[in-house]
Design goal:
Layout: H1 2-7, H2 11-21, E1 26-31, E2 47-51, H3 58-67, E3 75-78, E4 84-88, H4 89-98, H5 102-113, H6 115-142
Antiparallel strand pairs: 1-2, 2-4, 3-4
Length: 143
């Protein structure tokens, strides 16, 4: 199974890993590609990750970066638990209504019903990643 998953690592996934890694050592991360790797239709983007030993205040700093980015859809960032999550608020709202398997089901439902939402959310995520990358570069130039 791991070899199959490795086939679908997107350029954006590698970029996400690199950008998040600028703020600390990643213990784990997961993200969706902007388009389905086999069929090409737009997907609902989200990123989930965990730092091995996050600096105090890192979650607040990342939240501030995301808050400054103009977006077309509403986003939620949660750094309150071990795994951090950045996702469109609509995904989390719909997932909460669906119960135990809600997250996966909501991903599919939104993807099938509203490809324009997926396109907008993917554009938002690219802008958010650019802002986070700019912050990382600014921090490294201050050192």
């Amino acid at each position: 199974m791991m070899a199959l998953e490795a086939c679908f690592v997107s350029a954006r996934s590698n970029r996400i890993r690199q950008i998040l890694g600028e703020f600390g050592e990643l213990g784990w991360y997961k993200s969706t590609p902007s388009e389905h790797p086999m069929y090409g239709y737009p997907q609902v983007p989200y990123i989930s990750w965990r730092y091995k030993d996050p600096d105090e205040g890192l979650g607040v700093m990342i939240q501030r970066v995301f808050d400054e980015v103009p977006t077309d859809v509403s986003w939620s960032f949660d750094a309150s638990s071990r795994n951090w999550l950045l996702a469109p608020s609509r995904l989390l709202d719909e997932a909460s209504k669906l119960g135990r398997r809600g997250f996966s089901e909501a991903l599919v439902q939104i993807m099938e019903a509203d490809p324009e939402f997926c396109i907008s959310a993917n554009s938002d995520l690219d802008r958010m990643l650019n802002a986070l990358e700019d912050k990382a570069q600014g921090m490294s130039s201050e050192v």
